[in-house]
Amino acid sequence: xxxxxxxxxxxxxxxxxxxxxxxxxxxxxxxxxxxxxxxxxxxxxxxxxxxxxxxxxxxxxxxxxxxxxxxxxxxxxxxxxxxxxxxxxxxxxxxxxxxxxxxxxxxxxxxxxxxxxxxxxxxxxxxxxxxxxxxxxxxxxxxxxxxxxxxxxxxxxxxxxxxxxxxxxxxxxxxxxxxxxxxxxxxxxxxxxxxxxxxxxxxxxxxxxxxxxxxxxxxxxxxxxxxxxxxxxxxxxxxxxxx
Length: 243
Ligand code: F6R
What we know:
The protein contains seven helices and ten strands. It has helices spanning 9-26, 41-54, 80-92, 109-123, 159-165, 184-188, 203-211, and strands at 2-6, 31-34, 62-65, 67-69, 99-100, 128-131, 153-156, 178-181, 192-197, 229-234. Helix 7 (203-211) links the parallel strand 9 and strand 10 (229-234). Helix 1 (9-26) packs across helix 2 and helix 2 packs parallel to helix 3 (80-92). The longest helix is centred in the N-terminal third of the chain and has 18 residues, at 9-26. The two termini are 18 Å apart. The structure holds fructose -6-phosphate. The site of fructose -6-phosphate has 15 residues, from loops.
């Protein structure tokens, strides 16, 4: 797995946005795999800028998001669907019919995971998958475990993930305890994978991902088995690589 180290989040965003532009230049009907959270925010801003300033065109693109909290409707302000609408979809003009999301309010989560997986199989594979990484090495919401899941599934979030994500919720608002997520096989079936990590809190996970044992203890370490995966890091996230 290749990695590059940058000085600022903005430089990372420019590099990540370049990968999107390359994919779109090759195929205007590119299938994108997308992440939420703080890691992709600057990339989404940069993409929105390129739409306004450079005429980048997302009208043919299909998107599949990695995950969604169980129990939250897509219109809930803490849902990942809402995050995507606010930070990307409405800014770059992705057509609603081309947006694919796991439904956190589905009546039957197993059926919902199968529906999403089948939809991805019929439209995909994902050409370009954007990822963040959890402090514990999760990707999507594939939390560290002895046995990882290949396909989409319902996951109980790790206590450290709930704690880390509390920062996005108002005081008194509870972080959902479970989520639906793409599985490891789903993620690894993307043609190209770009992972973004910034800040010291990610340094340990990044060192394990790139240099540690490939194991369920750091799900992101399996990205090293992918033929076209790159990590875009700032110096703080890359800190433990220099030792
Ligand atoms: C979000 C996702 C998660 C995050 C990870 C890092 O859709 O799948 O794996 O990428 O928890 O989150 P941030 O970027 O907020 O540090």
